Amino acid sequence: MAAGPVLSWERGVVVAVRDKPATIGSNRLEQLHLAVAKQATVEIVEPRDTLTLSRRLNGINFDLVTEDRNFTALKTGQTIPWGTIRASGPSGTRIRYRVRTGDDVTGPLEFPF
């Protein structure tokens, strides 16, 4: 995994990519990313297809991710005043995931297993 963020200035677009580890605590919930007025995506690298992702939109609205168990996104408008992406699963589960933030975080999944 990368030691720090990787920045890309491809075609004038600035994107930060960070690989991060986490461990689900005793409450079976772990916040993976907090975004403030900036779009972001989270993609689970491992373990695949075992976690449940959820989002907190606009600081209040709860949204359970049902489309893809390994990937979700927050649009800029959903992160005002803030938004979070969280994972839930068995206590002690170790997670590796990738966060992308910046001007353009769309595109194909990077880990299509």
In short:
The protein is an all-beta fold and 113 residues long. The protein has strands spanning 6-8, 15-23, 29-35, 40-46, 52-57, 61-64, 71-74, 83-88, 94-102.
Give a structural overview.
With 113 residues, the chain is an all-beta fold. The protein is 0% helix and 49% strand. It contains no helices and nine strands. The strands form two sheets. The chain has a five-stranded antiparallel beta sheet with strand order 1-2-9-4-7, with no helix packed on it. The protein has a four-stranded antiparallel beta sheet with strand order 3-8-5-6, with no helix packed on it. Strand 1 and strand 2 form a beta hairpin.
Topology:
Elements: E1 6-8, E2 15-23, E3 29-35, E4 40-46, E5 52-57, E6 61-64, E7 71-74, E8 83-88, E9 94-102
Question: What descriptive keywords fit this protein?
Answer:
mainly beta, 5-stranded antiparallel beta sheet, 9 strands, 113 residues, 0% helix, 4-stranded antiparallel beta sheet
